[in-house]
Amino acid sequence: MGFISTALRIAEKDLKTEFRRFYEILSILTFSVSSILVCSFAWGESVVTRPEIAAAALWVILFFASVLAFTTSFAREADRGTLSGLKTLPCSPLAILLGKIIYSIILLSFILFILLAFSMVFLNLTLTEKFTDFLIIFLLGVVDLSFAGSFISGLVMFSEGKTLLLSFLLFPVCMPVLIPAVLATENIINGASIGNIAPELKLLIAFIFVIISVTTLTFKFVLEE
Amino acid sequence: MTVTVETIDLSKRYGYLYALKNVTLKINKGESVALMGPNGAGKTTLMKVIATHIVPSSGTMKIFGENPFKNGEKVRKRIGFVGHESFLYDELTIKENLFFYAKVFSVNNEDFLDIIDFLNLKRWYNVQVKQLSHGLRKRADIVRALIHNPELILLDELFAGLDAETCNILVDYFKSQQEKTIIISSHSTEWAKKLCMRGVFLNRGEIVKDKPF
Fold this sequence. Notes:
A: about 85% helix, globular, B: 7 helices, 9 strands
């Protein structure tokens, strides 16, 4: 079986496993939705007059939701011993990582769409005018977070305090994603076109290439015991 | 005689502690070997090194004449490994677990039904793994490891926590696999002798005895 097909099989298996434990997804959704509600109650009128603050809130919530999602990505496999099963597969460690990345992209996109729906209601976010622009930024951000998060989740899976380490490592690593993503979302909300946010988009795309380079060089050592 | 596994001065060190120390071993095709020894002797570490899960600190190893740490994917296609813990996903049924492994190993979904029958798992085929007893889980895990018809079968603590009936079923099954190379690790000399023709005794990571049963 090829590299991509193996990764897809792993992602399919992960999604099936995750949706059988729906209470975990539900806990991420509960956190995300309640955070939006808290922001909405706290900011009240100012959300209506300054909708750009919704951009920052949205990315902060998505980032913390992703931390919750990544804590189970590789860590659960390591804790339950199923990682050894993945190691018996005739595939490169990178195929396993890609499987986890695809799974994270799908899971985070699902969370994102629910977040956006609630943001439209409670944070006065108008997405209809520039829906494609928003979609490009958010999907790029989700892909970036998934690449970085899955890699770090693999990196810390054998550690004692993996949840703490993941949060500590993910934040600085994801700064090059969060800053341009927040700026680009803010600019789009303020009426900028996709051409105006090209530098931010370039940064988001460049981040993917950096992470791919790092993982290609190092991930095989991550799975070694 | 074709050599399936050959290790020369193989060592695995964790800090100052040697889990394996200068292990030199040759296992031929069709041989069934039991790795014996007390807790912490290095049986599981040796198993995991042969399964390519652990990279040794020093020494060389060849499996099917190849360096498994250079041609891992090729070698793993020919190895079936049953660990001390189950590698199956609790939330999935036996069928879903096996189909996942079958797809990745490019095996037809019907090709392993005879093993399912032999190990009496048909009744539980659509049951989630978390609902299975330890014995049934172990049997399902064995099917998972044999799904791609491997030439080298590694069975870590095969008989641990299993009743006599299940142990007998497993011994009968593996005894029928004459052309396969089988390596088991076990605390039970009684069951190891029933299945294996040779015993390799380890203590503190070193081979202290290697003799036919």
